[in-house]
Amino acid sequence: MSTREQQLAAFGRLLDIMDDLREKCPWDHKQTFDSLRENTIEETYELASAISKKDMTEISKELGDVLLHVVFYAKMGSEKKWNFSGAPQEGAPQESFDIADVCNRLCDKLIFRHPHVYGDEAAKNAEEVSHLWEQVKLKEKGGNKTVLGGIPDSLPALIKAYRIQDKVANVGFDWEKREDVWDKVKEEIAEFEAEMRTLPNDQMVNDQMVNEFGDLLFALINAARLYKIRPDNALEHTNLKFIRRFNYLESRAKEQGRDLKDMTLAEMDALWNEAKEQEH
Known about the structure:
The chain has helices spanning 4-24, 26-30, 33-52, 56-78, 99-112, 115-118, 126-139, 157-169, 181-197, 207-226, 231-255, 265-279. It is extended, with a radius of gyration of 25 Å. Helix 3 (33-52) packs antiparallel against helix 4 (56-78) and helix 11 packs across helix 12. It is mostly helical. It folds into 3 domains: 4-84, Orthogonal Bundle (Helix Hairpins); 157-229, Helix Hairpins; 234-279. The longest helix is centred in the last third of the chain and has 25 residues, at 231-255. The protein has 12 helices and no strands.
């Protein structure tokens, strides 16, 4: 592994390259905060995909792409005439910042949020740290921040539900026994099934059905949290498993000179079961 000096030198090299690109490359020079935003989201998802696949080489590569965006935003933030849309910035001047400000603000926040490491608080395990973390975050802005106020609106719904439940649990709004959550799951299943039975076969879903299904998903995510399962990771694991098995099914059908559209469900099921056996 690299020494601290080598790590700092590599980071300095990245900053030098970013300076060059911002000045000399027409594409990099043209970018704004707005123009990079969607690319940043895409790079973050690519990193998440590499993590799901447990591909360390790919994780390292994708981390570099995410780091590039952090450095890019910091470089734009340090410029005298930066803006978001490409047009001159109107109104009150915005405060400039550079990569040192980004790092120092992060360091200050980490120190403040870890009083059990840098202060007098005590935390014996990860659960106690999580409770302490939420309490400290509420104090950061003078106690005016709400418990759920820090959850980004743009979070994917599955992750947002987990974060909502995790945050309220850290202030005591949770089941006394985790087993109790299954009664809630069964209740939501029954309510969804009851709503489904009220619809004629040819009728489209209604708002109430959507609401009931949302309640069921929320309860299942809550159960996952209580049993220390990340529902987004679990679902992605199943997504990858399904893709792997279906790709096998499709490949075997081609080997047999068959088109999936012309195969019966029973024939496809046989190849699906074959894919499962191959995994075992």
